[in-house]
Amino acid sequence: MASKEEEAVDSLRARYEAAGQGHVFAHWDKCDEGERDALAAQLRSVDLDHVKKIFDRSIADHDTGAAAKGEIEPVVADASVLKASAEDLSEWREAGLGVASLGELAVVLLAGGQGTRLGSSAPKGMYDIGLPSGRTLFRLQAERLAKLMAMSSEEANQGAPVRVPWYIMTSPHTHAATEKYFHDNEFFGLDSADVMFFQQGSLPCFTPEGKIIMQSKHEMATAPDGNGGIYAALHHSGVIDDMEKRGIRHVYAYCVDNALVKVGDPTYVGFCALRNVEAGAKVIAKAYPDEAVGVFTRRNGEVHVVEYSEMPAELASATDPETGKIKFDAANVVLHYYSFDFLKKCCAPDDVVQSSLVYHVAKKKVPRVTEDGAGTETPDAPNGIKLEAFIFDVYKYAKDVAFLEGERGADFAPVKNKEGTGKDSPDTARALIDALHREWIMNAEGSVDEDDDDGLGVTHADGKRYVEVAPAASYAGEGLEPVVRSYFMGFVPAGLSIEPVRDNKRAAENAIDEDEPPAKK
């Protein structure tokens, strides 16, 4: 009589054979007990019907020519922070702070990537971009979130602290290291009960014929399901349920590799909340036609993002005859807004979104088991298909989407490439932060002291001394006047992190009478 374990394996084998995937057991007899257990566990984790539907509809979509899908039209932002009146900006900001103060705002961070292109195998959020303080991306963003909560509490004039939960999506490669980093740094002062980590999922890799590729005799070849896998992950991890229990109504999402991101951006959140839309996007005007960013477009009335690699050259360089500007210039920089109800719909397994979501087809060289099952080989040419969903793929399901144009120098400093490459790298991000924070200090009637006579400023390896305003001192340039006045004659030193007055020993030593106006250079 067969044991329960043998019966379970026979049932599993029958299920895969019925799905036309029986070859995954081809080398079962060559596996030891541990390898068999690992393979069986991996095979049980796959919903065969679900992945087959994903594969079939994604291949069908991929094989449909762009022309057959309909022409694309540019998206025009509903408003711009560059052109909005002071009254509008204030109204949006107050609404956003109000949302946070009521406990209705959640923040979602996409942080599954490693810093491979930065020369590091650690999670990208742990990367130090070279600011005077040595703040990593995770620390910068945690402190900005803390400042948002403090501002929201102050705006509402409430004694109790505001709580904005932070949901951080990792990957199998970054999860353990990310959790450890936060624990080791005591969650950067945040309440650990309001920080939740969850992992994005993965999908099997397929041959062009739809057969699952085996990487070894006891392991399927798999790949992350893309940042669009966030919706399924939010459901399976229980994050959506947690949001609902907390009474969340508005969700802000962003990527970890933006060094200028305004975490929980109250002006943008308020802009979307006041319009009562299902989804929103803060977009940045493209800097030049072939900039490596996707752009928001409309096709058949639906909102889509066309990736830069998929945009025909003639459309990428097309200009608006009336303005002379780039026609398709609403760059997607992953500053996303969702109403909770819409996000919940996107995450539900039985809803139309998950049941019809099309994944992008990437043809890759996928390592495969050798014919005799003894090892793994990498083919010379692409042999497999990896399926990826993108986070923006759900926008076409939203009844209404609000677009707000942001300011490149205040909203977007990507950190993707190695130091010194000159594009989307730590040095370009540092320069953007430096320029913005110098502007903040000047607006607060201060000046930057470049001389550093006392030698306390940090000189970077590139020979420059950067200006950095700590998130606790200012979220977006507001409230810096007392900090500036705390420095002798209003001269704020370069090469230091400018902290709030209470935390700044050097500033306290140099403090002058607040009634005395600062000198200007």
Automatic annotation (TrEMBL):
A Gene Ontology BP annotation from the UniProt entry: UDP-N-acetylglucosamine biosynthetic process
Keywords (A to Z) from UniProt: Nucleotidyltransferase, Transferase
Keyword Nucleotidyltransferase among UniProt keywords: yes
KW Transmembrane (keyword) present: no
GO molecular function list: UDP-N-acetylglucosamine diphosphorylase activity
Pfam families named in the record: UDPGP (PF01704)
CDD domains on file: UDPGlcNAc_PPase
Record-listed E.C. numbers: 2.7.7.23
Catalytic activity: N-acetyl-alpha-D-glucosamine 1-phosphate + UTP + H(+) = UDP-N-acetyl-alpha-D-glucosamine + diphosphate
Pathway(s) served: Nucleotide-sugar biosynthesis; UDP-N-acetyl-alpha-D-glucosamine biosynthesis; UDP-N-acetyl-alpha-D-glucosamine from N-acetyl-alpha-D-glucosamine 1-phosphate: step 1/1
Family stated for the protein in its record: Belongs to the UDPGP type 1 family.
Protein name in the entry: UDP-N-acetylglucosamine diphosphorylase
Organism encoding this protein: Micromonas pusilla (Picoplanktonic green alga)
Superkingdom as given in the UniProt entry: Eukaryota
